[in-house]
Amino acid sequence: MSGLVSRALVKEAVVGPRAGVRARLAAVALAALIFLALYLVLNIRGDWQFAVTRRLLVVGAVVLAAAATGGATVIFQTLTHNHILTPSVIGLDSLYVLMQTLVVFALGAASPAWTDATVHFLLSTALLVLFAGLLYQRLFRSERHNVYVVLLIGLIAGTFFQSVASFLQMILDPNEFLITQSRLFATFNNVRAPALALAAGALALAALYAAPYCKYLDVLGLGREHAINLGVDYNRVVRRLWLAVILLTAVTTALVGPITFLGLLAVSLARQLLRDYRHATLLPGTFLVGTALLGGGLLLVERLLVFAVPVSVIVNLAGGVYFLYLVLKESQA
Known about the structure:
- The structure is a single chain.
- The protein is mainly α.
- Helices cover 79% and strands 0% of the residues.
- The chain has 14 helices and no strands.
- α2 runs parallel beside α8 and α5 (117-139) runs antiparallel to α6 (147-170).
- The model has no long low-confidence stretch (mean pLDDT 82).
């Protein structure tokens, strides 16, 4: 009798909270679907087929960005054991800005590297992966790699890239400067079908590559020594997951531009909402929160702000304020 009571209590303690988590996940998924559906159909005048087709590209870019940025940030925070870091600290955002400036400075705004969406996407992805790959090689040169040394190198490199880009922008032709500025903010409205298809394929391959190793994330979150003691091939698993983070971040940045705080905001809100440490819950929760944020941001920009600012500016503003809140909260803990 006492055994039955104990099993019932254990079941209530486990199943009850998990049912609550599933309910909260369903609520976020519903909110994301409503936001995206409203964006698809509201205020269409004229040719419905053209408008819906165009907006479907935007929705596709939103879904890919939310999935890739959220997944990369969750994995990155687990590997670095820090909940206020994002993959952007390794300098990919600043490198993207420098690359856009260099293309206009060296080749002009009429170059195919600037005007052709496919060429632009492939060039951006290649350069971002090359830079991040060099950092990756530096990180795993020895068995006792130090993540924070590599993060410091990435931070310094990002500051250097930003300084060079600012210098070049100051000596650009004023018209080319204005054209360059249009690419320095992430936007979903400029995504074209070929680039979206290439990005979807690349992200799918990256996800398939990382999927077998995601089951170790819960153990990796306990720390290197605990993971090794529990039988995880720590160095091999961490190498694979780091490469996945690089690919996910590089492809997303090349597709829509830099959204520095999207991942941090989505992961932190998902942690607060779900209150579940398991990555099997946190990964889909982060994706759904990110999709809802971007979907709501698109509606806000279109309905209230009349396209006065890109959605990335709103996300980064909210994310920046939330980042300061997290820093102050951690300093008082």
